[in-house]
Amino acid sequence: MTYFRSLFGKSGNAILDKFIEEKTLKWIPYNQFKNVKYLNKGGFGIIYKAIWLLKDKNIEVALKCLNNLNENLDEFLKEWDNHEKCMGSCRIINLHGFTRSPDTSNYIVVMDYANQGNLRGNLTNVIEINWNQRLSMLYKIISGLNEIHKQNLIHCDFHDGNILNHMNMINNINKVFISDLGLCQPVNLF
Questions:
Q1: What confidence tier does 69 reach under pLDDT thresholds 50, 70, 90?
Q2: What is the pLDDT of residues 27-37, one digit of tens each?
Q3: In the prediction, which pLDDT does 105 show?
Q4: What are the contacts of 8-11 at 24+ separation with CB within 8 A?
Q5: Segments of the chain assigned to CATH 1.10.510.10
Q6: Across 170-184, average pLDDT
Q7: Where does the chain hold its CATH 3.30.200.20 domain(s)?
Q8: Of 131, 126, 109, which Cα lies nearest the Cα of 176?
């Protein structure tokens, strides 16, 4: 555990640090990111793309800076608890941990980056692929939803903007992920 903490550190917020430790996530110092670039703005915050500088490799990640996160940290962590419950599925976008902007002092979520964007932006490409590829994509989406439902959760914000596509350039495999589980609610609330 000492190596883990020395490599990634702590946020300085007891609530967030406890959540990170319980969920085996990481607090990632912001200086471990380079080439931070604006991608998109949504209803809940701003998404950036960055390179995460790890000891043995560099990986592309998405940085999600949420509006009012610092003010509603407890509520925010309840929402990410639902996301973490579903991460056993390869169809849910991977959550690495959290960081903090040195400019705004806002907390930021660090997730995998989907290099093809969301389904909404790729609908014209989907129309051009063959039926087997479309059915495969649909199966991957259903598998992700199934994992959410196995956890007795309902997504509550499921739309084409929350379905992400990633093309692995090495083996030319298209991956599909469900994202934005922040509004997930337990089934028993309905």
A1: low
A2: 999 999 999 99
A3: 84
A4: 8/97, 11/98, 11/100, 11/107
A5: 117-189
A6: 86
A7: 14-112
A8: 126
Contacts of 28 (CB under 8 A, 6+ apart): 8, 52, 96, 97, 98, 99, 110
Average pLDDT over residues 16-28: 91
71 pLDDT band, cuts 50/70/90, is low
| CATH code assigned to 117-189 | 1.10.510.10
From the list 71, 43, 29, the residue with the least C-alpha distance to 182 is: 43
Q: What is the DSSP string of 54-119?
A: -SS-EEEEEEEEETTTTTTHHHHHHHHHHHHHTTTSTTBPPEEEEEE-TTT--EEEEEE--TT-BH
CA distance 120 to 19: 33
Residue 1: predicted pLDDT: 43
Residue with the larger pLDDT of the pair 172 and 156: 156
Cβ–Cβ < 8 Å for 107, 69: yes
Residues 49/51/54/59 CA torsion (nearest 10 deg): 80
Of 21, 25, 28, the residue nearest 7 (C-alpha): 28
CATH architecture of 14-112: 2-Layer Sandwich (3.30)
